From TrEMBL:
Keywords: Cytoplasm, Heme biosynthesis, Iron, Lyase, Metal-binding, Porphyrin biosynthesis. The keyword Cell wall biogenesis/degradation does not apply. PANTHER family: FERROCHELATASE (PTHR11108), FERROCHELATASE, MITOCHONDRIAL (PTHR11108:SF1). Involved in coproporphyrin-dependent heme b biosynthesis. Catalyzes the insertion of ferrous iron into coproporphyrin III to form Fe-coproporphyrin III. One of its GO terms (molecular function) is metal ion binding. This is Coproporphyrin III ferrochelatase. Fe-coproporphyrin III binds at S59, Y128. Gene3D superfamilies: 3.40.50.1400. It catalyses: Fe-coproporphyrin III + 2 H(+) = coproporphyrin III + Fe(2+).
Length: 375
């Protein structure tokens, strides 16, 4: 009989995140790390630096990852799952390469990666895989024996991700004044990305018209809107909108921007809006500044009541979902039949990114995919 807690062939889980500054002196070096070779206008960088300085130069993302680590360790321990959990970031300490070095020193040979990004896109998936390849190259240059690295499938449609967000939207609605509640519009918000990278997101056969990125977000938005209708009996109008655009103005990015959307909804007579940041795993700077500061200021100026719903953060249901995904993937790697858990219309996403998935403009080695130069 298969052991329900068998994580073979894996011997560790690596929480891989974006990273963020932890004080004023970290802000500029952090932004330099993020934007190295990415051609982001200096004006935008100065502006984004100000967002961080407004919060004392501290991004909440690192503490949110510490809380997620605790939640994962607690969930694993409570369920008898014996799998150590490590943490590394792409753009700030603890740096990914340092964590991998530590994992190798601890004798970890087969590592499963959980990225704090739930959807397909270059920025949300392949760039994480490129950073894994960069770190493996650094370890290889040091003569270290390289561990095998796999990445968990996209979890946007796992009930442990969707259900806490749906509940968050219900709470945000309940928090609105009663006279505007039933008429409230739902604005599901995610990070804007260039149209060109949206169109090529996901496996090559699905490229075009926003690709997997938009399709996956629409599926989650629909699921949450359906749950809200089932639980309240009210059919709230909804739309997928975007935030945190950077890049040069002449390059098209996904629209509408949340602030333009608030203006447009207000003009169209919407009595209130709930902003649901379904594109993000925790309340990091994109949420605290772009929604809670900037979009709320816009809404106040319009006299439009708004509420922002919660991200999953360290919700125990999200930690349980990760346990489910780890056990699922381990079984798949052992060649066992599994029924992957997924809501919505798209089904569970691939375990291994195929060649051509979320391509970069300038091709670079990426680990943990079919085109990985590493085993
Ligand atoms: C899809 C996506 C996610 C969601 C998936 C995921 O979570 O990975 C995400 C998350 C995040 N983005 C973050 C921060 C930044 N992103 C930037 C720039 C960019 N993001 C992009 C996309 C995404 N970004 C893109 C297309 C760019 C343009 C340049 C480039 O292609 O690189 C810049 C540079 C300045 C600017 O342009 O804003 C910063 C500082 C933080 C940390 C927040 C904190 O500190 O709390 C987090 C979680
Ligand atoms: Fe970003």
């Amino acid at each position: 009989m298969p052991d329900a807690l068998d994580v073979t062939p894996y011997d560790a889980l690596l929480l891989l995140s974006f990273g963020g500054p932890e004080g004023p002196d970290d802000v500029v070096p952090f932004l330099e790390n993020v934007t190295r070779g990415r051609g982001i206008p200096t004006e935008r960088l100065k502006e984004v630096g100000q967002h961080y300085f407004l919060f004392g130069g501290v991004s909440p993302i690192n503490d949110q990852n510490r809380a997620l680590l605790d939640a994962l360790r607690k969930d694993f321990a409570d369920h008898g799952l014996d799998l150590p959990v490590y943490w590394g970031n792409r753009n700030w300490a603890p740096y990914l390469a340092d964590t991998l070095r530590e994992m190798v020193a601890d004798g970890r040979r087969s590592i499963l990666v959980l990225a704090t990004s739930a959807y397909a896109s270059y920025s949300g998936c392949r760039q994480y895989r490129e950073n894994l390849a960069d770190s493996l190259a650094a370890l290889e240059a040091e003569g270290l024996e390289l561990p095998k690295i796999d990445k968990l499938r996209h979890y946007f449609n796992h009930p442990g991700f969707v259900e806490p967000m749906a509940e968050g939207v219900l709470r945000a609605l309940a928090d609105l004044p009663e006279d505007v509640r039933d008429g409230a519009h739902l604005a599901f918000s995610t990070h804007s990305i260039p149209n060109a990278s949206a169109d090529t997101s996901g496996p090559a056969e699905g490229h075009g018209d926003g690709g997997a990125y938009v399709e996956q977000h629409l599926d989650v938005a629909r699921l949450i809107a359906d749950t809200v209708r089932e639980r309240t009996g009210v059919d709230h109008p909804w739309q997928l909108v975007y935030q945190s655009r950077s890049g040069a103005p002449h390059i098209p990015w996904l629209e509408p921007d949340i602030c333009d959307h608030l203006e447009e909804r207000h003009a169209a007579g919407a009595p209130a809006v709930v902003m649901a940041p379904i594109g993000f795993v925790s309340d990091h700077m994109e949420v605290l500044y772009d929604l809670d500061t900037e979009a709320v200021a816009k809404a106040d100026e319009l006299g439009l009541p708004v509420r922002r719903s919660a991200t999953v953060g360290a919700d125990p249901r999200f930690a349980a979902a990760i346990r489910d995904l780890v056990l699922e993937r381990a079984a798949v790697e052992r060649g066992q039949q599994v029924t992957p858990c997924a809501l919505g219309t798209l089904g569970a996403s691939h375990h291994l990114c195929p060649v051509g998935c979320c391509p970069a403009r300038a091709p670079r080695p990426a680990a943990a995919g079919a085109d990985s130069p590493y085993a």
